[in-house]
Write a structure and sequence with these properties.
By secondary structure, the chain is an alpha/beta fold. It is built from eleven helices and 14 strands. The longest helix is centred in the middle third of the chain and has 16 residues. It is globular and about 60 Å long.
Length: 403
C-alpha cells in the first residue's frame, strides 16, 4: 500500500541528500510494515527505527523449478539462491542490503573469443569520466562495422556483463564492435546507472552526455558505420538504454531493454521504488520522442519481482501509441527451457519496429545467458542473439540529400 505521508517524507530526505534514510522508509512501506516501523517523530517527520540501510539494487530473482536441471544462477559468491537470502533477511528483492562482493577474475575464455581483442579505455567530458571495455572482433580490418553499446546492471562490471550475456561471442560471428561502459561506485553506491534521476534523463547532461560521448569516441577512434549504432542493457542498464533512445534518437538506430523501465518512469528515488514495484509513471511523466519511434526490443520475465513486468508492457505501449502499427503474436518454448510470448509490431510498410518477449516463469535475469556471469537464466530464450538480430535489421534513416 502506498502512503502519501511516507512518499512525501522520502522525497524530502532525498532532496536533503539522505538517500539511505529515504530508501529505508520506502522499503518498509513496500514491505507492508511501514506503520509499525516508521512512526511520526516529534517534529511531524517520520522517525527511522534501527534497521540496516539498504541500497537501491536491482538484483536477480532466482526462480526454482524442481524439474529443471538449469535453475537461474546468481554470482557464485552469494548464498546458494537469492530466494534463500530473501527468506533469511525477510527483505524484498531489489531493496535489500548488499555488501560488496569480490569475485575472482573471470578467465579470458569466458569473456572474449580467441583471436579477438577486449581493450580498456576511458572517456571524460564536463559531466565526468567513465572507463569502458571495447570488444574488437577478429574480422575487423578497418572496414566500417556496426557498434553495440551494452550497459550492465547494478553491482555488475563490463567483464561480468560480457561473460553473462556472451555478446562478444555473437558479435564475433556477426563482426560487430561492442563497448561496455562502466558505472563508477562514486556515482552510485551499487554501480547502478542513475536512470531514475531527472538530471540523468536529459540530452546534453549527466550520464546521457557521458554515454553518448563514449559512443562518439569509439566512432572517432575506429571505423564505425554511423547508421548502425545500437544500445541495450539489463535492469538499471536497460532503463538507461531507454533514456538514451529517448534523448539521442539521432545517434542510436535501435535499443534493447531487458528487465528495464521506460525513460521517465521515475524522476527521483521515491518514484523509482514505486515504478519498480508496480510499473512506471503516468503518461505525463514518461518522456517521448518528437520524431518517429526508435525501434525497440524488450525482454521481461513474467515472474520478475524486482522490476515489475508491467514496465515492459509500458515501454511498448508508450513507443507505439502515436504510430500506425499492426501486431503479430507468436508463442513458443525453448527445448527444456522457458515458454515465451513474442509480440512483433510492424509499421505501415510491414517493417518490424518493436518486439516484446514475455518470458514465462523467468525472473530478473538475462535470458539465455551464461552462468559464467551474474544474474543470468540459461533456460532461454537467447536474448543476446535475438537482440543483435533485431539491431542489425535496423539502421538510421538517410538524411535529405544523402545518397
Amino acid at each position: 500500500m502506498l502512503r502519501q505521508d511516507i512518499i512525501r517524507e522520502a522525497t524530502r530526505l532525498t532532496r536533503a541528500g539522505q538517500l539511505i534514510e529515504a530508501t529505508v522508509l520506502l522499503q518498509r512501506m513496500l514491505r507492508g510494515d511501514a506503520v509499525a516501523d516508521a512512526a511520526p517523530g516529534p517534529t511531524g517527520r517520520i522517525a527511522l527505527i534501527g534497521r540496516e540501510p539498504p541500497t537501491i539494487d536491482a538484483k536477480a530473482d532466482t526462480i526454482e523449478e524442481a524439474d529443471s536441471p538449469h535453475p537461474a544462477r546468481a554470482a557464485p559468491a552469494q548464498p546458494r539462491t537469492l530466494r534463500a537470502l530473501r527468506d533469511r533477511t525477510k527483505k524484498r528483492p531489489g531493496f535489500g542490503q548488499r555488501r560488496v562482493i569480490k569475485r575472482a577474475p573471470l578467465p579470458p575464455s569466458d569473456i572474449v573469443p580467441e583471436g579477438a581483442r577486449f581493450v580498456e579505455g576511458t572517456y571524460s567530458n564536463p559531466a565526468g569520466s567513465r572507463a569502458y571495455r571495447l570488444f574488437i572482433p577478429s574480422g575487423y580490418q578497418g572496414q566500417p562495422l556496426p557498434l553495440v553499446v551494452m550497459l550492465h546492471g547494478c553491482t555488475q562490471s563490463p567483464d561480468d556483463f560480457a561473460a553473462g550475456t556472451r555478446m562478444n561471442f555473437v558479435a564475433e560471428e556477426q563482426t560487430c564492435l561492442v563497448v561496455y561502459p562502466a558505472q563508477r561506485r562514486e556515482a552510485n553506491q551499487a554501480k547502478c546507472w542513475n536512470w531514475f534521476r531527472t538530471a540523468d534523463q536529459q540530452r546534453g547532461k549527466g550520464e546521457p552526455l557521458l554515454l553518448a560521448g563514449i559512443t562518439r569516441q569509439i566512432m572517432r577512434d575506429y571505423a564505425v558505420d554511423p547508421k548502425r549504432v545500437y544500445i541495450g542493457g539489463l535492469s538499471a542498464g536497460a532503463a538507461a538504454a531507454a533514456v538514451m533512445g529517448a534523448t539521442y534518437s539521432d545517434l542510436y538506430a535501435a535499443i534493447g531493454v531487458h528487465s528495464g523501465l521506460a525513460c521517465g518512469a521515475a524522476t527521483d528515488l521515491p518514484s523509482a521504488f514505486v515504478a519498480m514495484r508496480q510499473g512506471g509513471g503516468s503518461d505525463d511523466t514518461i518522456i517521448l520522442n518528437d520524431g518517429p519511434p526508435v525501434p525497440t526490443i524488450v525482454f521481461h520475465g513474467d515472474r520478475d519481482t524486482t522490476v515489475h513486468p508491467n514496465n515492459g508492457d509500458q515501454i511498448l505501449e508508450q513507443s507505439i501509441r502515436t504510430a500506425r502499427t499492426q501486431k503479430q503474436v507468436h508463442r513458443g518454448r525453448v527445448p527444456g527451457g522457458h515458454a515465451y510470448t513474442r509480440t512483433i509490431v510492424t509499421d505501415a510498410s510491414g517493417r518490424g519496429i518493436f518486439e516484446h518477449w514475455n518470458i514465462h516463469g523467468a525472473g530478473h535475469a538475462w535470458s539465455g545467458g551464461s552462468p559464467a556471469g551474474s544474474y543470468t537464466d540459461p533456460r532461454g530464450p537467447d536474448a543476446t542473439r535475438e537482440m543483435l538480430r533485431f539491431f542489425l535489421a535496423h539502421s538510421l534513416p538517410r538524411k535529405p540529400g544523402e545518397s
